[in-house]
Amino acid sequence: MPSDPLQPPRSPDELLARLRSLFPELSAQFQGGARYLLDHPQDIPVLSMRKLAGNAGVQPATLVRLSQFLGFDGWQSLRELFVDVLRAGPQPYAKRARKVVRETESGRMLAEMLEAQHQNLDRIANANAQSLPRAAELIAAAPSLHIAGFRACFPIAFTFHYVYRLFRSSVHLVRGEAGTLEMELRALAPEDAVFVASFAPYSQESIRVATLARASGCTVIALTDSTVSPIALEADCTLLFSVESPSFFPSVSAGVATVEALVEQLLAKQGKGAIRALELAEGQLHQAGAYAPAGGR
To answer: Is it the case that residue 102 has pLDDT exceeding 70?
Structure first.
């Protein structure tokens, strides 16, 4: 283990990432505590240290020493990272809208929005360098893929479904229209892959899809804003995207960019078979009159 003192992580995601990276170097006792924290981060803000230690099969003092090793002055400081996230929660849209109306000058709006989108795209590149190829492997290996995204995440799910289905037929969009979500989820079969997109505040539908997919023996891929989101906790592979925006509503642009990058990897993985399927789909669309003739009428 490193001898130099560590600076304490500044967020739950940073803490969990540090635990994963240091895990092989930890003592057996520390590994016992770290394993439980990694597998059950949702318990950290709501259970006592004694209860957590009992669940992990270690002594409470082990969690104190593990916290100090990670750079905190004790367990309570580590726990506060997760408590603060719960306490803050997502800011109501109306409150954000009032701030936009009150503080934003029209001349700065476009520049601020473009800067936020640029930063969001930078974040997905850094966060998904390893997980994006893994997601492509899991999806390509599955007999069928079911894609779900509700409310603001529906554009992400629809884009993924529309583009990927151009060269793969066993791709299905979960819509949940007219209260039919549970009926649609009856189609989930063991070894299928289920892709779910959601960000805080997380939709109940997305959580139901991820939970039922896990129970059905499916491989779950989550596209979300945190490694401790409800759908990430059910996932075999998690892709992260940021929804930061100077406007009143979170931005899904980085989520759309992530699935576009994922489709690119899936196309490359499928190779010549994907090209043939894509040529066939394009030909059928033109023959069916889906597109206006080039050059006008």
So the answer is: no
Radius of gyration of the chain (CA): 22
Which is nearest to 44 in space by CA: 255, 228, 227? 228
pLDDT at residue 296 is higher than 60: no
Let me know the angle formed at the C-alpha of 197 by 16 and 137, rounded to the nearest 5 degrees.
Answer: 75
AA identity, residue 180: T
This prediction's pTM: 0.71
Sign of CA dihedral 114, 115, 117, 118: positive
Average model confidence (pLDDT) across the chain: 88
CATH of the domain at 40: 1.10.10.10
| Percent of the chain with pLDDT strictly greater than 70 | 89
Q: Which two tokens stand for residue 273?
A: 């078979």
61 inside domain: yes
pLDDT at 31 exceeding the cut of 70: yes
Q: Contact 209/80 with Cβ under 8 angstroms? A: no
Cis before residue 201, ω within 30 degrees of 0?
Answer: yes
**Nearest by Cα to 153 from 80, 225, 47:** 225
166: Cβ–Cβ under 8 A, 6 or more apart, which residues?
A: 277, 278, 281, 282
145-149/219-224 β-pairing: unpaired
Q: What is the mean pLDDT of residues 82-90?
A: 63
Cα separation of 194 and 236, whole Å? 10
H/E segment holding residue 123: helix 106-127
Enumerate residues 6+ apart whose C-beta is below 8 A from 86. 45
- 98 within a domain of the structure (yes/no): no
Q: Say how far apart CA 162 and CA 170 lie, in whole Å.
A: 12
Assess whether 206 and 283 both reside in one domain. yes
Residue 142: give the domain boundaries.
114-287
